[in-house]
Structures are given as structure tokens and as C-alpha cells.
Amino acid sequence: MAVSLSGRSFLKLLDYSREEIEYLLDLSVRLKAEKHAHTPHRHLEGRNIVLLFEKTSTRTRCAFEVAGRDLGMGVTYLDPGSSQMGKKESIEDTARVLGRMYDGIEYRGFAQKIVETLAAYAGVPVWNGLTTEFHPTQMLADILTMREEFGQDLSGRKLAFMGDARNNVANSLMVICSKLGIDFCACGPAEQMPESSLVETCRALAEKNGSSIALTDDIAEGASGADVIYTDIWVSMGEPDDIWEQRIKLLSPYQVNARVMGRAKPSAIFMHCLPSFHDTKTTIGAAIAEKFGLPEMEVANEVFEGPQSRVFDEAENRMHTIKAVMLATLG
Q1: Which residues contact 30 (CB under 8 A, 6 or more apart)?
Q2: Which listed residue (147, 177, 232, 272) is catalytic?
């Protein structure tokens, strides 16, 4: 049966079936080929979308803007200071106003309930560019990157997430792996593991799709046999700066370095959603190095810049997969 996602919002991957996720990935492959061949694909000429950002971003904003324009759409960007949503105007009212003016709305910000409310009231597709709980567009880019490395069928592959697994990226990786039959392992301190209710939901999905969900604090166990070693920064946007010392003490043993990569398969790749603190070339990286004597944080520079790294392939794939989501839901 043909897949149709027209009119659907894209809020979390739990809402999408395996068949629908694979359809979006296949569409991404087609659109990436057209982009690289400089083949015009302005399939949504005359449409307009708005990008509603309460948290800033390089990749998410640029991916939505370029993808929207490639598809022929007008794109409006509203930064954190350019909207009255939640201040002078309710989320419900904002959704109804924007839904009258735009064909689609992207939201990047805080609680999942905000993007869910936008979708409930807008009357047009709403896309989740990141919330505290989930980051679904990043996941499509990650899986596309894995497909390019290992082939279309990823059943039986193992993805190990190292470090702070109690965040939106780890949550969403666990969901998409459970949907696609990929073994997922969260490797980090017990207090930084995903919520138990989400773990149980994903374990049920994984069992149905022939894969597994594992949680461990043992680095050797987590990395062993992995096809992908994945990590993220130790302090997420919106968290207080004074948490750095605590997180560094807690998560430093889980830094992805050559020793960790050596425990994975020889063919394993390294992935990171970015930005990354792999050196001191950022203000935060330099400050952490000066204060704590730590020049590299969640990943060693030799891994980030090494031959197993696929981080910039992932970054590019944000654009192609986001384009697929918009075309599928607006087409």
C-alpha cells in the first residue's frame, strides 16, 4: 500500500510506523541525488513556511531554510525575540494566527507539549525541530548516514550512545532504533539514563522488530560490537552553566576516544549531532579547559577529526531529510 503523509505533523517518531519512516528515508535519498545533480525540485512553489525558534541553532535553521527554498517556498524565520508566543499571546492563539498565514510551521524550543499544542491548533503541518524530550529530524539524518555507510537494511546493526543518555537525542535514537530493528545501547551513569516508561515502550517495539534495547554503565559492554558510536554534549541548551562541574565529573569516563572506538567493530563509525566540544576553538571549550583542565570533552579530537568520523555527513543530511519531511507532509 502506498504511503501518504500529506497533512501530517512530524512531532515525534513514536507517531510514525516503520514503513512511514523508511518512506521518508527513501525520499531523502532521491532529494539528495537531485540536489547534488543540481536538478531543480521546486515541488512546493508558492507555499510559505515559518520557522519558530525559541532555541537558536545553526544546522536546524539552515537546513529548513535551504530545504524550503529548494522546494520553491517562501521562508520566514522568527527568533526568540521576534514572537509574542507564550508572553503576550498564548500558544493556541499563535498557532491559529500562523496557520492562517503559512502552509507549515517548524518549532524548535522547550517542552514537547508546546509543539503538540501548536499542531493541535494550527490546522497545518507542524514539524519538531527539537524539544526537550525529542529531536526527530536529527534521527532521520542519522539513519540516512548509517544507510550510506552500511546499506539500506540496518537490521541487526548496533548503535551505542555514550554519555548523557537522559536527553532528547538519546531518547529519539532509542525510538528510531526500536522502530527499524537496530540494537540500541545507552552507555553511561545510571542517573543519566532515559525515563523508564520510554525504555519499556521502546523495548516492546524493539522486540516486535527483532532488535534490543540495553542500558549499561560498563564502557566495554556498551562499545563492544558496535557499528556506530554516538555521543552528544554533556550540558544541553537551557541547562544552567553551574552544572558543568557535576557533568564533567560524572561523564568524563564516557568520553569517546581511541580506546572506546577500539572496542567497537573495526568498521565502526563515529557520529555526533553537533555542536561538539572536541577542542578549545570555542568560547565554552576554552573556558572549560581553563577552569577544569579539560581540552576535549565528550569526544577526543583525534576521533572527531579521524577517518571513522561521519559528523559532517550527518550535518549535511539534516537538509535532505528535513526536505523530505516537508515535501511528504505538504505535498
Answers
A1: none
A2: 232
203 included as an active-site residue: no
Could you say which of 8, 47, 59, 108 is catalytic? Answer: 108
Catalytic residue among 138, 142, 157, 177: 138
Q: Tell me whether residue 318 is one of the annotated catalytic residues.
A: yes
Query: Residue-wise pLDDT tens for the chain (331 aa)?
Result: 689 999 999 999 999 999 999 999 999 999 999 999 999 999 999 999 999 999 999 999 999 999 999 999 999 999 877 777 777 799 999 999 999 999 999 999 999 999 999 999 999 999 999 999 999 999 999 999 999 999 999 999 999 999 999 999 999 999 999 999 999 999 999 999 999 999 999 999 999 999 999 999 999 999 999 999 999 999 987 788 789 999 999 999 999 999 999 999 999 999 999 999 999 999 999 999 999 999 999 999 999 999 999 999 999 999 999 999 999 999 9
Single-letter code of the amino acid located at 283: T
CA 107, CA 115: separation in Å to the nearest integer? 6
| Choice among 59, 61, 278, 318 that is catalytic | 318
Catalytic residue among 185, 227, 273, 320: 273
Annotation marks residue 310 as catalytic: no
- Decide if 108 is catalytic: yes
Does the bond joining 275 to the residue before it have cis omega, within 30 degrees of 0? Answer: yes
Does the predicted model carry a pTM greater than 0.90? yes
User: N- to C-terminal Cα distance for the chain?
Assistant: 18
Active site residue 135: yes
d(CA 191, CA 260): 21
- Asked if 152 is an active-site residue, the reply is no
